[in-house]
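Input sequence (83 aa), recorded before submission:
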Amino acid sequence: MAKPNPKAPEKTVSISCARCGALLYKYKKGGKGALVKCFKERIVKNYTTTPCQCPECQQVFAREMLIRGAPAYKIIGGKVITK
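Predicted structure, token format:
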């Protein structure tokens, strides 16, 4: 399987909790589609204290896993919003 592109995309998005609106990540996202996964190496700024859990409302919004051999967070549908 191919690894994610080593050159990070230029577009940076803000990822927030859908329930309370708390900022979770600043992330370098590639492509135009919906946010399905976040590769850990592309996270620019992490605002969470516990991995995959909102710091304000404690909602679990993702699961840790290996995707194409790289550590990533698999986003649970409808739990986060991007701007």
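Checked by second reader. Residues 12-82 form one domain.
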